[in-house]
Amino acid sequence: MSSAPLGERLAACGPVADAEAAARAHERLSGSAAEGGWGTLLDTVWPALQPVFAASPYLFGLARRWPEMLHAILTDAPEVRLDDIAARTIALTGGADDMRSPLRGLKAELHLLTALADLGGVWDLDQVTGALSKFADVASRASLSGVAEDLRRRGKLLTAADDTRGPIPGLFGLAMGKHGAFELNYSSDIDLSLFFDPERLAPVLAEGTEAQGLMNRVAQGVASLLSERTADGYVFRVDLRLRPDPSSTPPVVTVPMALDYYESVGQNWERAAFIKARAICGDFGAATEFLKALVPFVWRRSLDYQAVLDIQSIKRQIHVHKTGEAMEAAGANLKLGRGGIREIEFYAQTQQLILGGRDSSLRSSRTVDALAALVAKGHLPAEVAAEMTGAYVELRGLEHRVQMLEDEQTHILPADPARRAAVAALAGQGDLAAFDAGVEAVLIGVNRRYGALFEGEEELSSPFGSLVFTGVDNDPETLATLERMGFSDPGAVADTIRSWHHGRIPATRSVRGRELFTRLAPRLLTALARTGAADAAFKRFSVFFAGLSAGVQVQALFLNQPELFKRIVGVMAFAPRLARTLGRYPAALDSMLDARFDTELGVNTGLFDQMAEEATAAGDFEGAMNAVRRLHREQAFRIGMQTLSGRVGPQAAGMGFTNLADAVMRTLSSAALTETERLGGAMPGAVAVIALGKAGSGEMTAGSDLDLMTVYGAPSDAVSATKGWSPDVFYVRFTQRLISALSAHTAEGGLYEVDMRLRPSGSKGPVAVPLSGFQTYYSDEAATWEFMALTRARVAWASEPGFGAEVTAAIEAALCRPRPGVDTAGDVRAMRDLMDRERPARGFWDLKLVPGGLVDAEFVGQFRQLQTAAEGGRLSVSILDQLERDPPLKDAWVLHQALAQLLACAFDDKGDPEAESETFRTRLAEAAGEADFPALRLRLERVRKAARGAFETVLPSRSDG
User: Helices in 208-265 by DSSP H: which ranges?
Assistant: First the structure.
């Protein structure tokens, strides 16, 4: 090693990028040098200094502010000067405020020395990074010493300043990342992980001092002392986040807690981080014990196949360059971008983690040394290691030169040509095009070698780009990928994914769960992106995924059934109603594995028989309610999925939902009757449940409620066997239990909202009506609107088939009975006008109330049914049959019902298609047979206009009176 002064050893780093800037720098420094008597020295070394100060405003600023420091650096051997800087740093005494200014002056001196030795060709990369790392070590020690001294002065710490256990016994700091490996870059922050051993610390604290709170303040004090910017600058930015689960742990973690974390949920990227960990300050004895305890975590002697794949995933999350993909020097991220420094580090570390557990010679913390060790043990071809090592040295040198421009913690090669030319000049290149081409060749070469590692294994990036969720910082390439995918807040998505990797939800709490999620995450994000509604889908998937009590089976299912997974993601994107079902009841997934799930609706799959059997086998009324809810949820989910996917049309969906409701009513009506008999004894009579509205007409949607009435028949003097209840009491109690069974929310959720207001006398009358009372009411009292409701009435269940037939006959008789003197058309029109005034349509997509929409069609259909009944024609509860004479209204009803079915399957409330994704709007248009959403809107306008015209013709306004 030469002992000659730095000034004698400097060589020009490259061309002068800005001659005017160089001239100004020489003029400013010449005056100071002349005053100090070293003008001749400045002139001698100026050919080496001028390209540096012409390109780097930061380095010239240091020299201009402290010219005597520049003189001292030039006249000393750089190795001697470095040792002197370190010695002066470690010799600092006093509290934090006493050290603040001296530390910053020493850092400025170190920075100027290191830059000149680097750019002047005096030091190689190892010497440069070693100098920076060495100073970071002593600066950290001095800072901790200063903060500890302040604690002693306040009486919080009882030890002497020269305690051999360190400034605060039990507390220690580990240098992580490049600092730990003596690879620190020029303007890097330092990753400092602080831990304390409570048993070692407790005896040296003053009585009543709470250890955790005090250690947190120590961490904040050290970080502030090093990173706070003053008039003298700063020392190092400090990152304390390379600790266990930094978002939920204090800045200083106890040793027992840390060991428990790493043993239970530590991730492979954290194992990789500890390859470079090194004790640099505090209680070195405690630090040595801690690092020794972590050896089994970092270096596993045995790895199963899944564990190897999980380690490989660190590499496979990065998108590999393919021919034709742009890799440009301008704006390239030399650290995190494709072909960058991180890929070289991961290239070494992934192999170290797999092989180093059984071979300690492969555990080097330094990247270049690790590559050499892999070659020595036959795990890596020498030419590959040589290429990667050369690229590493070149990229690290470029990284330093980018940072030297303004002392910025950046790794991005400037996009601006002038600034990039300055970097090129510091790197010895005067031809910017040639410089760019050289950088691009290096990046492509690294990425090609990186892509060949573990070649043939499953890719964990995405067609959209890299998806890397290691470390504590969001990866810039990953954020760019997420933005391309359509996420409006990529940072929040990345944070959520990282938290799942940390095992913060049950699905990823186990090692196997986290291994599976590593594979699932890129597929998930890619699938979400392809829905065209990435934000909404991710939000709903998050609720579902976080709600899983365990995740191994579900994640394995998704990985092994990609089509199923695609359908689930589609649900998350377009159907919050179905997504809510999955979120609250993840077991609904099981139904998708049932062979019956994709069976065409209408085919008897045995599910309704199964519902009755399971309700009976439940043993009690509540058990029957829960059994029905489970099967109802699965079947409703099935119908919704088939509707949304287009497997079934709106009429089939309407019958599917209605058949399901019928099965529920049959099962729970029987159960409610059994329960009522259990409580009051058997009743010599019969009861029927009448469905009205959409349940009656077979046109239910996913969001339909049940319009019901119950009608019974029993001898007037009959009483129940045990309690002696009269028929009215018995059947009212039956009806109350039925309503509860249908509408109450249990542990298995709810079924339907039940509306009994369409019964005789509405809400003022009893909930159960005798058949004779039903007949009398519709003979003497019922208004036109009640007859309109009756046009869609049918018996959904009867305790005795014969009684059901009687009720059906009574309904038909009521409809067919002449109503002399009644202006049915006028009444129907008046009711529609009243609805228009009191419940006007809420916008274009209020399919029910908009003029020419569902209500207009249904009112005309019900009027036609009453006309047909009066004429003795064939009756039908189907709106399509009722509208046979009114094609425009029939067409309008079919179109609006198709859209209503889809919207009801997708949304809990009335969704606004205008606010949904383009993909969903296209699906809505397809459901109506249109090519796109604008075409659907135009068709709706045309159809509504025609339907409203037909409505006015059939039911003209009675405005005259």
Answer: 211-227, 255-265
With beta carbons less than 8 A apart as the criterion, state whether 22 and 96 touch: no
Tokens of 847: 């399919």
One-letter amino acid at 801 equals P
The rounded distance, in Å, linking the Cα atoms of 837 and 846 is 15
Q: Write the CB contacts of 376 (distance below 8 Å, at least 6 apart in sequence).
A: 361
Residue partners of 758: CB distance under 8 A and separation at least 6: 692, 693, 707, 708, 709, 786, 789
Sequence-distant (≥ 6) Cβ neighbours of residue 543 within 8 angstroms: 579, 580, 583
Share of the chain above pLDDT 70, in %: 96
State how far the Cα of 761 lies from the Cα of 943, in Å rounded to an integer: 37
DSSP state of 711: E
In 3D, which of 395, 397, 376, 398 has the Cα closest to residue 387?
A: 395
What are the distances in angstroms from CA 766 to CA 384, 690, 715, 720, 910? 88, 15, 18, 19, 33
Q: And the tokens for 736?
A: 């109350």
Cα separation, 27 vs 260, whole angstroms: 61
DSSP state of 204: G
Strands 238-239 and 171-176: unpaired
Separation between Cα atoms, residue 136 and residue 278, nearest integer Å: 12
Nearest to 341 by CA among 409, 403, 397, 271: 397
Residue-by-residue DSSP string for 263-303 = HHH--HHHHHHHHT-EEEEE-HHHHHHHHHHHHHHHS-S--
Residues 924-940: pLDDT tens digits?
999 889 999 999 999 99
Instruction: Give 752's contacts (C-beta < 8 A, 6+ positions apart).
Output: 661, 664, 704, 705, 706, 742, 743
Q: Convert the pLDDT of each residue in 125-150 to its tens digit.
A: 999 999 999 999 999 999 999 999 99
**Tokens in use for 54?**
């012409």
- Average model confidence (pLDDT) across the chain: 91
Q: What is the pLDDT of residues 210-256, one digit of tens each?
A: 999 999 999 999 999 999 999 999 999 999 999 998 888 999 999 99
Structure tokens at 517: 């999620």
DSSP letters, 96-140, are HHHHHHHHHHHHHHHHHHHHHHHHTTSS-HHHHHHHHHHHHHHHH
- CA–CA dist 69, 837 (Å, integer): 87
**Single-letter residue type at 149:** E
Cα–Cα distance measured from residue 46 to residue 599, given in angstroms and rounded to the nearest whole number: 85
Nearest by Cα to 685 from 655, 721, 660: 721
In angstroms, rounded to a whole number, what is the distance separating the alpha carbons of residues 387 and 402? 22
157-191 burial by CB neighbour count: b if 16+ within 10 A, else e? bebeeeeebbbbbbbbbbbbbbbbbbbbbbbbbbb
Q: What is the 3-state secondary structure (H, E, C) of 557-618?
A: HHHHCHHHHHHHHHHHHHCHHHHHHHHHCCCHHHHHHCCCCCCCCCCCCCHHHHHHHHHHHC
According to DSSP H, which parts of 646-704 are helical? 650-680, 693-697
Run of H or E residues at 196: strand 190-196
- In Å, how far are 361, 610, 738, 760 from 818, measured between CA atoms? 101, 45, 34, 19
Q: What percent of the chain is helix, strand and coil (3-state, nearest 5)?
A: 60, 5, 30
- 3-class secondary-structure state, position 686: strand
CA 630 – CA 588 distance, rounded (Å): 8
